[in-house]
Amino acid sequence: METINILKKRRSIRKYSNKPISKGILKDIVDCGRLAPSDNNSQPWHFLVITEKEELKFISNKATYGEFIKEAAACVIVFCEKNNRHHLEDGAAATENMIIAASSYGIGTCWVAGYNRIYEEDLKEQFKVPRNLKMISIISMGYPGEEPYKQKKPLKEVLYWETF
Ligand SMILES: Cc1cc2nc3c(=O)[nH]c(=O)nc-3n(C[C@H](O)[C@H](O)[C@H](O)COP(=O)(O)O)c2cc1C
Questions:
Q1: Is any ligand 1 atom within 6 A of the Cβ of residue 65?
Q2: What is the tens place of the pLDDT at every residue in 134-145?
Q3: At what angle are helices 23-34 and 87-104 packed, to 10 degrees?
Q4: Is the CB of 110 under 6 A from ligand 1?
Q5: Angle CA 63–18–46, to nearest 5
């Protein structure tokens, strides 16, 4: 039930407290990403963890809708091997796993779009990312400094039993 509550309560967090996230927790969050389902168990992912303020600023200056990354304690950039047929879905599954794992630790996150973004090349150059990898997402992370509300579609609007 704990997981269900975490899933239902999670909201994207774009304001953070100054509290750092321990390396152990960051490692465990990435560990949860690594255990996500993937096409044919291909596990095409590579996770880049950034905690240095200057680098977070660099990313926030590049990411079109990710200016708040500079206030985060960390971010994880998800890359996948692009020769893999389902690299986008695989990377998205790992991203969501990490978002839920972070929520379980009381850490707020925001998924920042990273797929086919113009800033992909700049980030790859900055962090010496191998050419065969494709950026999938950037996840900002930090202890929450806000409690946002989000309107969600009611279940009856999106759920169909047996047929549409
Ligand atoms: C593929 C994807 C890309 C997203 N890109 C951004 C982004 O670039 N910047 C941002 O602030 N939020 C981004 N978000 C977060 C969404 O805005 C957010 O999930 C949505 O508004 C629903 O709010 P909630 O996460 O609080 O439920 C993205 C989410 C997804 C799944």
A1: yes
A2: 999 999 999 999
A3: 140
A4: yes
A5: 45
